[in-house]
Amino acid sequence: MRGLQISLNQTQKIRFDRALEKIESLSSKSNSNATVTVADSIPVNFEDGVLKGHGTSERDGEVVATLCGVVERVNKLVYVRTLRARYKPETGDIIVGRVIEIAPKRWRLEINYSQDAVLMLSSMNLPDGVQRRWTAVDELNMRSIFEENDIVCAEVRGFQHDGSLHLQARSQKYGKLERGQLLTVPPYLVKRRKQHFLQLEKYGIDLVLGCNGFIWVGEHVEAMDNIVKDLVSKSEQQSSVTTLNEQKHHQSPLETRQNICRTANAVRVLSALGFNISIEVITQTVELSSSLNIDIHDMLGAEFYVLVAEAEAERRSLLTKKK
Amino acid sequence: MVGLSLGEKHFIQGGIAQDLRSDGRKRLSYRPIYVETGVIPQANGSARVKMGATEVIASVKAELGKPTSLHPDKGKVAIFVDCSPTAAPAFELFGSASAERDWLLVAAEYKTLEAVSSSTASEGSGYGCEYTAPFKMCFSFSIQSNKADGHTRGPANGGFNNAAHAPCLCFRATTYGILPDVSIWSLSAPQASNSRTRSVNPISCHMESICSTSKQTAICCSIFISYGRGGEELSAELSTSLQRCLLGGKSGAGAGIDLSSLSVVEGKMCWDLYIDGLVVCSDGNLLDALGAAIKAALTNTGIPRVQVAAGATGDEQPEVDISDEEFLQFDTSGVPVIITLTKVGKHYIVDATAEEESQMSSAISVSVNRHGHICGMTKRGGAGLDPSVILDMISVAKHVSEQLIIKLDSEIAAAEAREEE
């Protein structure tokens, strides 16, 4: 939590500091030996023949850290992993990106990484669900699938030999995201979990936690099978003419919109406080705010920050007690 | 400013229509305001104001100078605003001196001049021609990167699809003779560059206009590529708006800052205040934040006490003794606050974020003082406004200003108390 600048009055400051101290005391019990700062020497068994990785350097025969972080050892490799690193993609990550360019047979997406990711046309399902090869006509109609500035959810397929990042969106749950808002949080707050697509049925909203720090909060859209969608749309076309126009001007109902804003504000508060963002914490924060009847905009005020910090301290102490 | 997808734009517009914006605010509520005073110790007064993600710093320096002959009993105030390149990528990209040479007009084609209704057509030569009836005029031109290596400036593979990096294309059409009754220019979106070869291809635009006139009109059109030096244009616009809002008209009437309190010796010596604003981080609503920062900085300003040596006669400059210890606080009860109302669709919002500002049709900034009097007004944005709408927006602004003045005063007082600790 860098530079949290909200005006807290005296009592709020005391409560806030107390909550943060409690959290720190709970977490620092585990592997405090592994953290290093710049110029700390790393204990290494030299007989094994150690490989010096990122964040280390040799000085006077000793392996010395050049970054502040945690020492990781993999077989003979020793490296220092920073805590607030830039997003580092791994195969299988779910990410949310924004299309910035349409190139021949591919889309280029911006994903908060040092380079842009590429979504090949061949890594996408055809819109009508038919399994066939993409033809030149399909290539000319790429813009009808994703346009510039569209928000797309995809999975990392892997790195190519030239270092560029490739994505794939072959499943139903991937694709264009509409009817909601995109939030940007520091990528190190989103840890890799089993579930990144979360559907909060109680509120009727969809939540996509991209590992790259882009989080999508939007109205729940049924991910229909393409064949079913085709049949439905054909029958609808016979009855009404402008299905497409209606879809474009669809307005989210007020109830859903309130839930979307509440969840988005919960994510904003958590990211400002520097807590890891996961589904449990988000639902807990949203329930806290609605149980105390806090106005949606007041969630960004000083009092709610303190409440969230205290609630997080409680939750972590309960977790450690369970262990 | 990154672009927004169509879904996001609809979401923002729908939210404003339903009185629930993206962060849960109502249409007329402000983001949390955080004020810090005394951030620049060398200045006479300074303040930093954060409204959400927008962050600005204002500083006030006072120097002794000579008053103008038009107003011998008043001091002088000058306001300058600078947009730091760290505030937004657009501010930095076009700031360098070589920017103007980077773009080259490749082709300008005066395409067609068609009669909308049947009438005598006349041959057009070059860009000008004469017409007597409603006509439609089409223009197309292309610009291309002029850099030696053929790469466009900007993101490596962005070309022009990122609106923040496109140059501002400005098209001027001057008409000689009787002005046409209706003239609407519509600019069709530039075609996406084929980025197989990293945007060496020119970008072309096609513009159409339908003019109707019943008299003879000669139309002479010039293409003027105004290369938006993003940061400098915005800085100049903010400076003039602030001057208009805080200093009143040319005769000094309606000034928010009382200039006669700055006079030392009438006709010979006065205080010159130089107010500088710096935009550190831009997330919409810069004018309001700058207005609040200037108000806070002026509250924080201490003008040294001046002892004038007696017995100065005629044109001699009187001797003055500037005290280092004693400071007079500047009286800021009359300084107005600036409220910007942004019109999106049919509704007005206050304190728009950068995303909401990208959807605006027009915006009005009104400066209102403690007594509810209007000290200045600026209109921005391309769409026109009906006068009744403007009057409505002014009354809304006055209503909002009451709460904002109270909030701002309490924040400034809290900041001063914090500074003293």
Automatic annotation (TrEMBL), chain A:
- Tell me if rRNA processing is a UniProt keyword of this record: yes
Annotated InterPro entries: Exosome_RNA_bind1/RRP40/RRP4, KH_dom_type_1, KH_dom_type_1_sf, NA-bd_OB-fold, S1_domain, S1_RRP4
User: Which stretches make up the S1 motif domain?
Assistant: 90-170
Instruction: Quote the subcellular location field of this record.
Output: Nucleus
* Chief place of localization: nucleus
Superkingdom to which the source organism belongs: Eukaryota
Assigned GO CC terms: cytoplasmic exosome (RNase complex); nuclear exosome (RNase complex)
| Family annotation (Pfam families) | KH_6, S1_RRP4
The membrane-spanning stretches of this chain are none
Recorded protein name is K Homology domain, type 1
UniProtKB/TrEMBL annotation, chain B:
Q: Name one GO cellular component term.
A: nuclear exosome (RNase complex)
Question: Where is this protein primarily located?
Answer: cytoplasm
Provide any one GO MF term from the record: mRNA 3'-UTR AU-rich region binding
Q: Which UniProt keywords apply?
A: Cytoplasm, Exosome
Q: Which GO terms describe its biological process?
A: exonucleolytic trimming to generate mature 3'-end of 5.8S rRNA from tricistronic rRNA transcript (SSU-rRNA, 5.8S rRNA, LSU-rRNA); nuclear mRNA surveillance; nuclear polyadenylation-dependent rRNA catabolic process; rRNA catabolic process; TRAMP-dependent tRNA surveillance pathway; U1 snRNA 3'-end processing; U4 snRNA 3'-end processing; U5 snRNA 3'-end processing
CDD domains of this UniProt entry? RNase_PH_RRP42
- Please verify whether the record's keywords include Thylakoid: no
Gene3D superfamilies to which the protein is assigned, alphabetical:
GHMP Kinase, N-terminal domain
Q: Where is the Exoribonuclease phosphorolytic domain?
A: 30-99, 237-304, 334-398
Q: Which InterPro entries match?
A: ExoRNase_PH_dom1 (IPR001247), ExoRNase_PH_dom2 (IPR015847), ExoRNase_PH_dom2_sf (IPR036345), Exosome_comp_Rrp42_subfam (IPR050590), PNPase/RNase_PH_dom_sf (IPR027408), Ribosomal_Su5_D2-typ_SF (IPR020568)
One Pfam family linked to the record: RNase_PH_C
Give the location in the cell.
Cytoplasm; Nucleus, Nucleolus
Similarity annotation: Belongs to the RNase PH family.
Protein's UniProt name: Ribosomal RNA-processing protein 42
- Organism equals Dillenia turbinata
